[in-house]
């Protein structure tokens, strides 16, 4: 067994069933998008090609997150590494798909004659999601030989891309107002990270990766309340959408 395989084999006891965590997060996302996407199967009326691609990319990511810990638990380290290398292709595809979702939302806003300030502010969601997901993934890859850090950053990636599904779940399924759904869509992933930090502290584990992830997500989330309508963001977003 190689040193890398030995590192993978030492899964922390409290994380033996981490795949179930990813299943729960995926379930929230599916429920959030059920009325507007998954529930439209098989006709998928009015669903665009980029929305299909975007949905496929995200579903693949969550399936990967679910499968990888199972492979480790069964000692399938070679398969784990092969699938891990597949993410070098999948992650850029996910980021590109988010870009095109942002483009589609922008063009729809223009077609609906929405105020330009609202359209540019709306691009904030896709931009911060690209940033958070990419940074946390890069941190996971940088720490691929430090299993505790790698695992925690990969867990954080699931929370970084779950917000849109959670907001829709809270608004469409539960019936919260848009403002409350927005807040709790930010708050729930953050409080999950806080709970994981507390859990690690209780167990005597190093929670640094979770703390870094929490800072990244919290800054992105709560900047929504003052940044998107600022002159700075409007200028940056205005430059960004010229590429659309």
Distance between the termini: 49 Å
Our count of domains comes out at 1
Number of DSSP helical runs: 10
Low-confidence stretches: none
Written description of the protein model:
The protein has 244 residues and is mainly alpha-helical. It has one domain (3-241). The protein contains ten helices and no strands. The protein has helices spanning 3-9, 18-32, 49-73, 77-111, 116-142, 147-160, 163-173, 178-203, 208-222, 231-241. Helix 3 packs antiparallel against helix 4 and helix 5 packs antiparallel against helix 9. It is globular, with a radius of gyration of 19 Å. The relative contact order is 0.12. The mean pLDDT is 90.
List the helices and strands and how they pair.
Elements: H1 3-9, H2 18-32, H3 49-73, H4 77-111, H5 116-142, H6 147-160, H7 163-173, H8 178-203, H9 208-222, H10 231-241
Summed up, what is this model?
The chain has helices at 3-9, 18-32, 49-73, 77-111, 116-142, 147-160, 163-173, 178-203, 208-222, 231-241. The chain is mainly alpha-helical and 244 residues long.
